[in-house]
From TrEMBL:
Keyword Cytoplasm on entry: yes
Name of the protein this chain belongs to: Restriction of telomere capping protein 5
Domain TLDc: 289-515
A Gene Ontology cellular-component term: nucleus
Phylogenetic classification of the source organism: Eukaryota, Fungi, Dikarya, Ascomycota, Saccharomycotina
Record's keyword annotation contains Nuclease: no
Superkingdom field: Eukaryota
Species annotation: Saccharomyces uvarum
Location within or outside the cell: Cytoplasm
Amino acid sequence: MGQSSSTPSSNEEKSSNLRKFTNNGDVLAYFNHKAQQQVTVPELVSLKGNLQIEDMNTPISHKSLCSVLHFPQKHTLLSGIVTNMLRVLSNFPLMNSSYEPITGYGLLKCILLLNKGRCGKYLKFKSYDQLKLLFISLSLQKTDKEELSEENENNVKKERNIKQIIANFDDVDSEVLYVPADFMLQFLSWLLILSVECPTSNSKMGNSKIYDQWDSFKISAMNLLRTMNPDVVSNTESHLITFDQFSTSIRTVMPNLLKPLENLMEHFFYLENDLVNYDTSLSSVRDSRIMTPALLTQLSTVLPRELFIQKLQSLYIGRKSGFSMRSLQAKVFKWMAPSILIVSGTRITNSDEYAAQKNPRYRHFLEEFPKLKDSDQKMDASYTNKKKTTFAVYIDDPWKVTNKDYFGDMNTRIIQISPRQDIYKVNRKGTIYFNTIGGGIGIGDKQPLIKPASKRFIPGNVSLTFDSTLEFAVFRHTGYGGSLEPGSLSVERKEEDSFFELHFLIQDVEVWGCGGEKELEEQMKQMAWEEAESKRRQQINLRSLGEDRALLEMAGLVGQNRGGGSM
């Protein structure tokens, strides 16, 4: 399809990987040429058009880069962090030893390296660790003062083959690298905002108003930051993020975190008139105090992207409809599709004191709930120093009254949102009860024992329990043995036996409908059509070179004995 450059055979590719270089310039030139072979002619034309360059070796100014990335002028720290990251990646594979400025070729390599599918085809390297590459790019600081002189570089004739350079990340030891916590907070806040501003690779951008909500997104980003390093409470100064903290958190409890960055970089392959307006779910969450755009984007780091594909439906908001199970039942039980229960409150740090001096109703609740002993609990700094706590429960089944049995399928999960993020997955069907005879709501609990003169809750090893008045809630985590697994992050860090229990005074309870499978399927088809349509409009009819030759020559793809890029 169309004109393409020659593609090396597998034997030639293998031979190239073993090829040895003694000059940084030759290494970069080889990977620059290889990068151009990975993209189509229209994509290369769009890239040059967006950067307003004719030669791919042209350096890209900081101002120009900030403009195409849609950075607001006041976010100078963020723009510095991201442009430094791109400069490191643009020198791939010599991230540690080359200090070239960002060029068209360099930015093209950034796009390929930050896209999981494209990266694999570009490098032809099995099990390549993209997270490590990204962390290295955030950790290394590229300044012109460090730039090697041409004389020094030519004096060092170190033979290295391609495979070796890629495998050891240009002799970078990621175990000794770190990113300052305040830098990581900026980066995480930006990624969450990108979830709104750049939900797809072909969506129109430039909504600067979303940056007016930066402080709100920063709160959600702090939850993600504490997930990486629990010692970060409110002040990020003097705290660091290591590669192990970074990679473990993303792999286990925020797998979708980097997708917006991939979408953003893919935007370089679309000209402005190829982009489409894309409406997100944000307009439906304006009246909520808990389901904010920032919280929604945090949920999108772990839940499937249908959160943004369709409009969320407000089913029940406690502050409006009243904090009662009867009101919740009246608003929610007719919804026949997946839903998300959100609960937020203030942690009760001293149960005995609070029960005796401030709230006699809580004293009564403690008589019914078998509280975990303080001596058995092991809480890290993220719990002991933060009182605000928030949980979400994803429920695939329709709600129903279950005074004796349970509901909920294998997709049910509890997501801890603050003070840090974790996921608690079910290991069996039937993990939720909605008890209308005084038992409240339980996820992971057994049905409470209710008698005329007494009541006794039976919390599970991992469970979230609501009293029948929706005034108090308890999250318990005591390891394996229940219908929910210990936290995914706790298991990964071998902390599943670190018991803790969070009692909190409920401030907000809300239930949001996510839409049914039919609606989701239609939305997915529409998204696929729009993306294909953008690609179609992007195509250049290479057969009619007379008509399109000027455009191709501008891209440097024909003329002067040049071939076209691969289609």
